[in-house]
Amino acid sequence: MTAEPRGLHAPYSDAVLRAIPLGALLVGEDGRVVAANPQFATVCGIEGVDLSTGASAEPIAEAMARQLPDMDVAKAGALRSQFVRKAELRLTDGRTLRRSRQPIDAGDTRLGVLWLVEDITDQLRYEDDLHRHIDSLGELARDRAEFAARTSHELRTPLATVLTFCELLADPAAGTLTLAQREYVDTIRRGAQRMHDMADGLLHRYAQAAGAAAPPAYAPLDPGPLLARLVADATPLATRGGVFVGLDLPAARPPLVADADQLERALAALLDNAVKFTPAGGAVTVTARPYDGDSPGWEFVVRDDGIGIPKEFHEEVFTEFVRAPNARRGPYPGTGLGLSVVRDAVRLHAGTVTLHSSEGHGTAVEVRLPAAGPPGSGPA
């Protein structure tokens, strides 16, 4: 009977081993080399050691052991005898190898063990650099949040004072102002109010990021009075800018389980954006409708005749501090927080927000919220 040759069946097996990017060594049950690819010697740094078929695997293990720091005889013996499926070896030359072991069986018969060795030095260095960068970015984000929150807090008091004195000056009881003086006071009031709103937005945003914001308080509410109040608040500024604001509400309004503060903040941000970006002669329409189906809910749509948002920015504008190029170019002050506030509120209510817009053709933002609130909510 002809004996089975020790080597793997060539040429396919030899081609497969050479194609493996890792160092590969197949050792038989008798402790002798069955096959090895050239990469094994290069990766392990043991050029000159016999890796031919039939050679003993003992010199290979000893050559590897000599490259390990503080390696005594007992540990070297453990290296040869103990089969660990995966291990990382730090060599004296500063490299790190990842060694893995895969038994090779034919039915119930163990033919040998396949060792795969990979140099992961660059990978570990990259991971270390990445972790350092992540830590640095986290620290920068915390510093930015602290700075923005502190600055916003410090701004609110003087801005409130400016607004109070503007109201006092505009009061006829304080004395009659000339037309020019009234325009000056109104300009100061508008600028101060805009800055006050921006400071409030920043404070709220970073309070949420720091986990200091109050948890949502879900309760049934009628969206009608809330929308009517928001439209009434926005109308004076819109009228001064020549913008018409309309509200379309149904007579029958089933309740919506929502956090009133979060909902008000989101709808106010949408209305403020619509008025701000609509030129004189344009219109802003707020529509609210309940809808039925498998999951009944409420749909809110704020539509304007404003400058619109380029299609390529429809996703980005929901990110904090991101503003479309046409908004940055024009006389439209802001922080880029409005739509991020809407996004966060919609997420808290397990709803959806959809943007319909194109540059120069106005914007419509559609918010849909489940009538019963997010899963697990319910009346507070």
UniProtKB/TrEMBL annotation:
It holds the Pfam family HisKA. Keywords: Kinase, Phosphoprotein, Transferase, Two-component regulatory system. It catalyses: ATP + protein L-histidine = ADP + protein N-phospho-L-histidine. It is an enzyme of class 2 (transferase). InterPro entries: HATPase_C_sf, HATPase_dom, His_kinase_dom, HisK_dim/P_dom, HisK_dim/P_sf, PAS-like_dom_sf, Sensor_HK_Regulatory, Sig_transdc_His_kin-like_C. GO terms for molecular function: phosphorelay sensor kinase activity. Residues 150-373 form the Histidine kinase domain. Its EC number is 2.7.13.3. It is found in: Cell membrane. GO terms for cellular component: plasma membrane. It comes from the Bacteria. Its main location: membrane. PANTHER family: HISTIDINE KINASE 1, TWO-COMPONENT HISTIDINE KINASE. This is histidine kinase.
